[in-house]
Design brief:
Largest sheet: 10 strands, mixed
Radius of gyration: 20 Å
Helix content: 40-55%
Order of helices and strands: EHEHEHEEHEEEHEHHEHHHHH
CATH class of the largest domain: Alpha Beta
Shape: globular
């Protein structure tokens, strides 16, 4: 039913944690791990632990383990890893993420009882580099009821920062739809996974599940933390246009407002994240990118609401009051 795919890069210790969190669950799952540990020099502090982790990978018949030792662009690496999977559904996890106890049984049950769903998004908790929980994600729906979405609804909610489908470890999709959209595209670098989600959302029914089934690790060595902020903004502007194009004639004026507000919000968020506490750097970045911040009252209201959610909850996610909210979208 389900393949867990981990493109492991050189995170030896984190990979061990991720693998143990999966294999500890007594569920029939396929675990595909593609690692390049041999790129670590003999003087690297994790080098001595490569052999024990590989022993762990070889100890369970549920694991398909490939020592790639080939440098590929991240999109190619993810596509290569997914291509090794043989089950009908895929969950891609970072080597620094973990599954929570009982997650596999729950996911398997959801997939079996919802055969029309080709994309499933659930919640996770944020952990630090030591694995300690530091923050919970906001639910998709206030009462945490599951929500079924049709393609147009999913795209509209994505633009409104509601149906965010979170990081890859929070998603499950069918291998069939991965093949149909051509996998992860190299057209995007910073948000290639979100671009993939948008194309999937536009094709198939999806399901939002307000349950915490994984743990998402935040640390400064992560890929997204190292990429330039201007690259992120350029790609986000292109991405929201992709979503509007996917909506086509269904795109409303409200959808376009929310698309522009999403970019404007990210200008401020990225300025704060990359300025390392310097107010002058924050203001300088916002000034340099001011052309991305429309000044209409409606736009500013949307941006300020997102900033408030971020400041008060640590999460920009907008929670739906109830499952019927999707029927009231304009």
């Amino acid at each position: 039913m389900l393949s867990i795919c981990i493109p492991a890069y050189t995170y030896v210790d984190y990979t061990a944690e991720a693998v143990k969190s999966i294999l500890a669950q007594d569920v029939d799952v396929e675990l595909v791990v593609v690692e390049d540990f041999d790129f670590l020099g003999s003087d690297h502090p994790e080098h001595a632990r490569i052999a024990p982790v590989r022993d762990l990978l070889a100890s369970d018949p549920r694991v398909k383990w490939i020592s790639a030792n080939v440098r590929r662009p991240i999109q190619q690496n993810w596509n290569f890893t997914v291509a090794q999977a043989t089950r009908p559904f895929i969950k891609v996890m970072g080597a620094d993420d973990r599954l929570r106890p009982g997650a596999l049984a729950r996911l398997t049950d959801i997939l079996q009882t919802n055969p029309d769903v080709h994309l499933l998004g659930h919640l996770g908790v944020i952990i630090d580099q030591h694995g300690h929980v530091v923050r919970h994600l906001s639910p998709y729906v206030a009462d945490r009821a599951p929500v079924m979405l049709q393609p147009v609804q999913a795209l509209k909610l994505k633009l409104r920062q509601v149906a965010r489908f979170r990081e890859p470890a929070c998603n499950v999709y069918s291998k069939e739809v991965w093949q149909a959209v051509g996998g992860y595209s190299e057209d995007f670098r910073f948000c290639f996974d979100v671009h993939f989600n948008a194309r999937v959302m536009a094709r198939v029914p999806s399901l939002l599940l307000s349950e915490e089934l994984c743990e998402l690790r935040r640390h400064q060595g992560s890929d997204g933390a190292l990429l330039p902020a201007t690259l992120a903004l350029d790609e986000l502007a292109a991405l929201v246009q992709v979503m509007l194009d996917l909506l086509g004639a269904s795109a409303t004026a409200s959808d376009r407002y929310h698309a522009q507000a999403l970019v404007a919000y990210r200008v401020i968020e990225l300025a704060a994240a990359r300025a390392h506490g310097s107010l002058l750097k924050v203001l300088g970045f916002i000034w340099a990118e001011r052309h991305r911040i429309p000044l209409s009252p409606r736009m500013l209201a949307i941006v300020l609401a997102a900033l408030y959610r971020r400041a008060s909850k640590g999460d920009v996610q907008k929670t739906m009051p109830d499952a019927q909210f999707v029927l009231r979208l304009d």
